[in-house]
From TrEMBL:
Superkingdom to which the source organism belongs: Eukaryota
Predominant localisation class: membrane
Residues passing through the membrane, by range: 57-78, 85-104, 110-130
Organism encoding this protein: Saitoella complicata (strain BCRC 22490 / CBS 7301 / JCM 7358 / NBRC 10748 / NRRL Y-17804)
Record-given protein name: Uncharacterized protein
Keyword Ribosomal protein: no
Amino acid sequence: MTFAPYQAAPPDLLRAQSFPPEPVPGLAPSANIGYGGQTAGERVNAYETALPIRLDILSALCYLFPPVTGVAILLLEYSNDYVRFHAYQSAMVGFAILALHFFFSFSSFLSYTILALNIGALAFLGYRAYSDSETLERYEVPAIGTLANQWLETE
C-alpha cells in the first residue's frame, strides 16, 4: 500500500527506529514520558524559557528596575537556570541598593553619587547578562552572586 506516488515504502519503514526513553526512578511509568517522548525533568534546550521572550533579552531585563523586575521574573520564569540566576542576583542587588540609599539619605550629594554608580553598575550587569547568554557564562557580583548561585542550586 503506497501513501503517495513518490513513496516506495510505507512511512513506518522509512522512519528511523529509536529506543524508548529510560525511566526516571521514583516516578510512575506513565509519568516518565513527557510531550514528544522526553523523560520527565529532561531539558531539550538550555536556551528555552517559559516566557515568550528570548533568553538574552529576558536576562538583561532583570536589571532594568531591580528588585521589582528580578522578583517578577523569578515568579514567572521557572524553567531556565540562567535567567533565574540573574533574577536572583538582580533582586539581591536591588535590595542592597535600596538599603544604601536609605542609609545615605541624609546627604543629597552622596545619594546622587550612589545613584550614578548604581545606574552604571546595573547597566554593566545588564550588558553582561545579555552578552554572556550565548555561552551561558554567569557573571557573579562578588558576595551576592555566590549566594544567588547557591540558592539556584538548592531549588
